[in-house]
Write a structure and sequence with these properties.
The complex is a heterodimer of chains A (113) and B (113).
Chain A (H helix, E strand, L loop, with lengths): L3 E4 L2 E5 L4 E7 L6 E7 L6 E7 L4 E4 L2 E6 L4 E6 L8 E7 L9 E2 L3 E6 L1
Chain B lengths: L4 E3 L2 E4 L5 E6 L6 E7 L5 E8 L2 E5 L7 E4 L6 E5 L8 E8 L7 E2 L3 E5 L1
Parallel strand pairs in B: 2-11
Antiparallel strand pairs in B: 1-3, 3-8, 4-5, 4-9, 5-6, 7-8, 9-10, 9-11
The chains are: A mainly beta (113), B mainly beta (113).
Chain lengths: 113, 113
């Protein structure tokens, strides 16, 4: 089955700096890659997603890049703010497995004011 | 904005007892999921449900687990005889159609003593 690896497990940045979180996946059939933000005591909230026919997607301060050949995708947060502090999860899915999501292990991001 | 809701938010039970976790997916969604997250670990897929039947389940979802959509709005996860290792946060998710993203509820924290 699919295996998603995520790095780093923890990340601290100064407010205003950029943060990058990287994920790799194993199954080349995976074609959908969402990123979720999870705040303490809450469920994962979708922040951005990308499909395999797109190499990059951007939404204000958040961007995701996908390299299908290397089977990795990354989340980029620019101009970080304290409210960006949370755990971020990447995931991968493909139709052959009922579109279930395979999650990475999560990255705890701390933005230092 | 429509959202997935879950009840209860917290549940404490004795080992061997039955628990039912409840979810109300977004009203026009057709696909439903249960995931769990053991403290400090990644979110893991349990089961997917479509057209009133299980479409896929993981190896975690053994005979102690069952799901049901008893009416047009609720989606439940039952654990017949809880074990200590069932202690986790359980998330319900739903999506409107094939290939679209999943929206997660806030979770139920289950503690088995």
């Amino acid at each position: 089955g699919e295996n998603v690896e995520q790095h780093p497990s923890t990340l601290s940045v100064q407010e205003g700096d950029s943060a990058v979180i990287k994920c790799t996946y194993s199954d080349s059939a995976s074609n959908y890659f969402p990123w979720y933000k999870q705040e303490l005591g809450k469920g994962p909230q979708l922040i951005i997603d990308i499909r395999s026919n797109v190499g990059e997607k951007k939404d204000q301060r958040i961007a995701v890049t996908l390299n299908k050949t290397a089977k990795h995708f990354s989340l980029h947060i620019t101009e970080t703010q304290p409210e960006d502090s949370a755990v971020y999860f990447c995931a991968a899915s493909h139709p052959n497995t009922g579109n279930q999501f395979y999650f990475g292990t999560g990255t705890s991001l701390t933005v230092i004011p | 904005e429509p959202e997935v809701t879950q009840t209860p938010s917290h549940q404490v039970t004795q080992m061997g007892q039955e628990v039912i976790l409840r979810c109300v997916p977004i009203s026009n969604h057709l696909y439903f999921y249960w995931y769990r997250q053991i403290l400090g670990q990644k979110v893991e897929f349990l089961v997917s449900f479509y057209n009133n039947e299980i479409s896929e389940k993981s190896e975690i979802f053994d005979d102690q687990f069952s799901v049901e959509r008893p009416d047009g709005s609720n989606f439940t996860l039952k654990i017949r005889s809880t074990k200590l290792e069932d202690s986790a946060m359980y998330f319900c998710a739903s999506r409107i159609e094939w290939g679209e993203t999943q929206y997660f509820g806030p979770g139920t924290r289950l503690l088995v003593l």
